[in-house]
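Protocol step 4 of 6: structure prediction from sequence.
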Amino acid sequence: MADTQGLALGVDFGGSGIKAAPVDLRTGDFTADRVRLETPVPATPEAVAAVVAELVDGAGVPEDCPVGITVPGVVKGGTVHTAANIDRGWIGADAAALFSEVVRHPVTVVNDADAAGLAEARYGAAAGVAGLVVVTTLGTGIGSALVHDGTLVPGSELGHLEVDGHDAESRAANRVREEEGLSWSDWAALLTRYYRAVERVLWPDLFVVGGGVSKHAASFLPLLDISTPAVPATLRNRAGIVGAALLAGQGVGLPLPPA
């Protein structure tokens, strides 16, 4: 990592693991191996911050290297406002201040799906796509990101749209498919109703479908009966780290390639 121009560190906070890697923002590639530590139980803000500090300290990046950190909740102005699938102690937590105190680097905090969406728009399946791209991450819940002409529009929570009288992710997340043993075709029918609900309010130009299940995209994407083209995400489990690093780099004005 001798050439540190355009370098940022991405940290992705998930339910079971917290992962970090330095990213070359010119290419979106890792410049060193990803390191993963277990998410503490309970995953309180202070406990998670301690693990993040350990990861950053061990990354070997320069002191002025910006650090982007994802949180699986709505983040506005560095403060976390929701905790659908994480410890409730995160609600109202000033994550930006908390992480800045323990890592001593320029810090940017971002919703995990927003980070993944921006990474796909810059380096992945939606690179170069004009108009509105909706990136969804299908896992324990449904995360979402909106990207318009390569610019992130943060703060969407499309997994919580009401569909057929229910919170969408309670019916169509990949967790539901696994727990209920649904066939790909049965799950695709549920996803169709979800994506149609999104289409009714946003009229996107492209859906990018991420989450770990995207590696099985051929089993369910062709079964969706929707108007918008839908393609699998390409960065997969790298997307959160890459997107967080990208936003951190933007935050300190690093030179970046055109969107």
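Step 5 (inspection) to follow. The mean pLDDT is 94.
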